[in-house]
Amino acid sequence: MRRPRVLIIRPAGQADILAARLENIGIEPVVVPAVAVLPPVSWDGVDEALARLGQYAWVLFTSANGVRMFFDRGRTRGGVVGPPTLRWAAIGPGTAAALEEVGIGRPWLPSRYLGESVGDELPANQGQDVLRVRGETASPVATTRLRARGVSVDEVVAYSIVEAPRGSEPLLRRAWTRGIDAIVFTSASTVRGFAHLAERAGIADDVTSVTTFAIGPVTAEAMTALGWEVHGVALQHSVDGLVSLIEERRATIAADHATS
Questions:
Q1: CA-wise closest residue to 11 among 196, 213, 204, 160
Q2: 8, 119, 140, 212: which has the fewest C-beta neighbours closer than 10 Å?
Q3: Are 143 and 153 in contact, with CB atoms under 8 Å apart?
Q4: pTM of the complete model
Q5: Is 205 exposed, middle or buried (0-12, 13-18, 19+ CB in 10 A)?
Q6: Mean per-residue pLDDT for 26-37?
Q7: Which domains are assigned to the chain?
């Protein structure tokens, strides 16, 4: 009997950690990117922010992609250089790990890995300047809540997301033919991207036959908006939380696989 297969639809190159963790608990990971991460339409905003980094009290990243793209661009512009007083913030542990990889140790983290918590809890004072580095389609909630507290927020777009990249369509058909028992959704954009891929691949009506997991409530809301049942939401909105959830539900996934 084969192991249960779980579909991971994160962007290319960003599924390795989750895939390895699932392997360790006896799950066969299947990677099919539902979104692709690309440079922004223009680098002007990022370049201007890099040039005036010293005016900010905080730099806030709400995704690991934002960290990678911002610092990659910074390296082409002489580096990411700020004053010693500059503080760094991340929405969650994956984003914090990306910051640590580029030399930013111990960034601030909210109590819950959500935009609402970032907006309510970031220890910026009224009148201080915050730079938020985000993706093109990122939720505005963190910025909205910070501004409601009297914090000045500048936003720059460091990357764009392409949903349902064409190269993933044959990969999805092949994976579905072999059998998929559960799908892991890690952002609202992966939900939308997978929905488009499933439609093009001719499997849209079959999505309800598999177990679905969401990394957090925003992702779960995107799923329910499409009429999909959400079988589990990670309590900790991170890879660790997803692995814990899937390990907890492993017996159910295996049983559903055995009877399908």
A1: 160
A2: 140
A3: yes
A4: 0.84
A5: exposed
A6: 96
A7: 5-34+164-259 (3.40.50.10090), 38-161 (3.40.50.10090)
